[in-house]
Amino acid sequence: MRGANSYLGSIGTTIFTVMSALATEYRAINLGQGFPDTDGPADIVQAACDALRDGRNQYPPMPGVADLRQAVAAANRRFYGLDIDGMRDVTVTSGATEAITASLMAVVDPGDEVVLIEPLYDTYVPVVRMLGGIPRIVRLSPPHWDLPFNELAHAFGANTKAILFNSPMNPCGKVFTADELGFIADLVTRHDTYAICDEVYEHLTFDGARHIPLMTLPDMGQRTMRIGSAGKTFSLTGWKVGYVTANAALTPLVQKAHQNLTFTTAPNLQRAVAVGLAKDDAYFASLSRNLQARRDQLAQGLASIGFSVLPTHGTYFLTADFTPLGFAGDDVAFCRHITEQAGVTAIPVSAFYEQPGAPRHYARFAFCKRLEVLQQAIDRLKSHFAAR
């Protein structure tokens, strides 16, 4: 029989699948995968239930229902002062991962280069390569994850078509600064490229850090595709509702890609997310405040055990250096060890790197869990390492 797709055949099982299976096998507390262990707001869930029974369960419009597209536009104006036409500039997708793929499809031709910043979400590189694009990867280094301006500038060239980056950034919790975004915007303009901005954690920032969409910077509105996620904003990750905001020239291309990927998204979930985006400021403030309390609990607990905990100013995740614990092994071995022996699962940070030479002594822990679950994980780790 003839061979199948060689690139897909070369991709192994993701570390998230591997570690989650181990967590199930050893009945470990899973702080590996980034999803909350409680549902989001009851009124949004109820809105989805009500919409399911109102007789509108056939195919919704391919770009998304009008309620949600207009709600996304209103949220862009409300939070960032962006002048967005919901019916012209917004596309609803089946999750942010599809939004990333559709945005890349909208601009990347075979042979085009796409600048990426690692550590990175594990979908970025495969999608670029499946489209025939060439990843040009720039590395951030712990513990501060500062953007290396010279290296980033060197990554841009005559064949650069786009930069794709994530802020707030998974896995390292970095929130890009105004200066960093200004530098990126200058490169995008000078090299006549596009920016695909994965902003799914936009409302999950801590310690006064402020998320600034690249789209708000001068001349970026025409070059930027801004991606949001209802799953992250409303703690309903299984709904898989995402959205892309782009200008009137790019949006039809995003929609053509979306049409050939999933075509549409469950209409009742779309209408419920529209309800969510209209929630008052108190909800969005409480979202960050509650997650920051969980981050602090886990960070303090890990530090008390002996981990060196790196700062995190956004997302669901924190990174911890296990070197002080004296473990003889790399990050993959460490995460397997604590899953099997301590009953707590984390993700090796090297899994978020594409290039050789990734750091091998960091683990990523998700803190988007109930306080009592986080405390139980801390207690398990403390007991295990005290007995070594």
Concise overview:
This protein is of the alpha/beta class and 388 residues long.
List keywords for this structure.
single chain; 388 residues; alpha/beta; Aspartate Aminotransferase, domain 1; Aspartate Aminotransferase, domain 2; 2 domains; 7-stranded mixed sheet; 42% helix; globular
Beta fraction: 5-15%
Distance from first to last alpha carbon? 53 Å
Low-confidence stretches: none
Mean pLDDT figure: 96
Radius of gyration: 21 Å
Strand order of the largest sheet: 2-8-7-6-5-3-4
- Please give the share of residues in helix: 40-55%
Structural class by sheet pairing and helices: alpha/beta
Secondary structure tally, helices:
15
CATH fold-level name of the largest domain: Aspartate Aminotransferase, domain 2
For the record, the CATH class of the largest domain is Alpha Beta
How many domains comprise the coordinates? 2
Listing every helix as H and every strand as E from the N terminus to the C terminus, the arrangement reads: HHEHHHEHEHEHEHEEHEHHHEEHEEEH
CATH superfamily of the largest domain: Type I PLP-dependent aspartate aminotransferase-like (Major domain)
Structure, explained:
The chain is α/β, with parallel strands linked by helices. It folds into 2 domains: 6-39 and 282-386, Aspartate Aminotransferase, domain 1 (Alpha-Beta Complex); 42-280, Type I PLP-dependent aspartate aminotransferase-like (Major domain) (Aspartate Aminotransferase, domain 2, 3-Layer(aba) Sandwich), CATH 3.40.640.10. The protein contains 15 helices and 13 strands. It has helices spanning 6-10, 15-25, 42-52, 66-80, 86-89, 96-107, 124-130, 149-155, 178-190, 230-233, 251-259, 267-277, 281-305, 331-342, 371-386, and strands at 29-30, 90-93, 113-118, 134-139, 160-166, 194-198, 224-229, 242-245, 308-309, 317-321, 344-345, 347-348, 362-366. The protein has a 7-stranded mixed β-sheet with strand order 2-8-7-6-5-3-4, sandwiched between helices. Helix 4 runs parallel beside helix 12, helix 6 packs across helix 11 (251-259) and helix 13 (281-305) packs parallel to helix 15. It is globular. The model has no long low-confidence stretch (mean pLDDT 96).
